[in-house]
Design brief:
This protein has about 325 residues and is of the alpha+beta class. It is built from 15 helices and seven strands.
Length: about 325
């Protein structure tokens, strides 16, 4: 049975998708193309990429979907031109043609607006467009056919503030560290933190939102605060610091009852990709009713607490089967 997604009018999501059979399809060139398509589709969809990480057989995104009660015709055409700069067999109309239709406010204008808006501000439409566009390019450029992705993407609704948001972002950026590729994510080209360190405006903007929930914080302050989240008080990676296996994580939990954030983030934590909703206890409980209605279950789910030393507890709506740490 497919798990129902939880969505919010204005939400932040951790999205994850893997290649078919876990094949390591992506090298540097493929990742560069994926990153370009990612930002194009995000601009079209009206979503903000707070951070991301591309690996050789999967990707992680932390995206913010702001609520837009209306989008002007000029903005609709600008976004359309980002995704379809030239007519294609699937989108025959040029941006100029569409602009004339909207400005004339003729019979087709409302249908055009509705069709475009249905693809904006929607997590599923965003992911569908992203994966389809990249699959089309990949198969064509590699003389390949057939599915590229293993199944539908996973998504977790994340509380958009404080320790919860920072923890999820750091977990995503530390993927190459857990994989043993680097000791410091700033050395890995294909993650949001490395882009922010290099000064890319969109990545810096995402980092500022993650660390302070606003964009007026100084870049240096945002980088320092986030680095403390990644590595603890010392703000430096330990030599050879990479993945913490499940046995080590369990041992620390048994000895201390919780995991320090810098240790927790070096585990592969299935809660972060399979937990449906992640946040404070109050945030998770606020989504109980919609989850219960959408699944048709008689009883509400029970929140599950993730043992961690933090000023704000980490709670998930749905526990995971089997080992949580792997």
């Amino acid at each position: 049975m497919r798990m129902r997604r939880i969505t919010a009018e204005s939400g932040i999501y951790h999205c994850l998708s893997r290649t078919v059979n876990g094949e390591a399809f992506f090298k540097e060139h493929e990742m560069e193309v994926f990153r370009k398509i990612l930002h194009q589709v995000a601009d079209f969809s009206g979503v903000e990429v707070l951070t991301y990480c591309l690996m050789n057989n999967h990707f992680h995104l932390l995206i913010r979907v702001p609520f837009e009660d209306s989008v002007s015709d000029d903005e609709l055409i600008r976004r359309y031109g980002i995704l379809y700069p030239k007519p294609t067999p699937y989108q025959a109309a040029s941006a100029d043609q569409m602009f004339r239709e909207l400005k004339s406010n003729g019979v087709d204008a409302e249908a055009i607006r509705a069709k475009l808006l249905a693809r904006m501000g929607d997590i599923s439409a965003f992911m569908k467009t992203l994966k389809q566009r990249f699959s089309t390019w990949f198969n064509k450029s590699h003389d390949r056919f057939g599915p590229l992705w293993s199944d539908r993407f996973k998504s977790v609704l994340v509380e958009g503030k404080g320790n919860v948001l920072q923890t999820m972002a750091a977990y995503i950026d530390l993927n190459p560290v857990r994989a043993g590729l680097v000791d410091d994510p700033k050395e890995y080209r294909f993650c949001g933190y490395a882009e922010a360190v290099s000064g890319r405006p969109k990545a810096v903007s995402g980092l500022k939102f993650i660390t302070a929930g606003l964009y007026t914080i100084a870049t240096a302050d945002a980088l320092q605060a986030y680095r403390c989240m990644l590595f603890g008080k010392g703000s430096k990676p330990a030599l050879g610091a990479s993945q913490l296996d499940r046995a080590q994580a369990v041992r620390v939990l048994e000895e201390q009852g919780s995991l320090p954030p810098a240790v927790l983030l070096r585990c592969r934590i299935r809660y972060f990709s399979e937990g449906v909703v992640l946040g404070s206890n109050e945030f998770v409980k606020s989504h109980f009713d919609s989850w219960q209605r959408s699944t048709g279950r008689k009883h509400p789910p029970k929140p599950c607490c993730i043992p961690a030393e933090a000023s704000q507890s980490l709670t998930v709506m749905k526990g995971v089967r089997g080992h949580a740490y792997s």
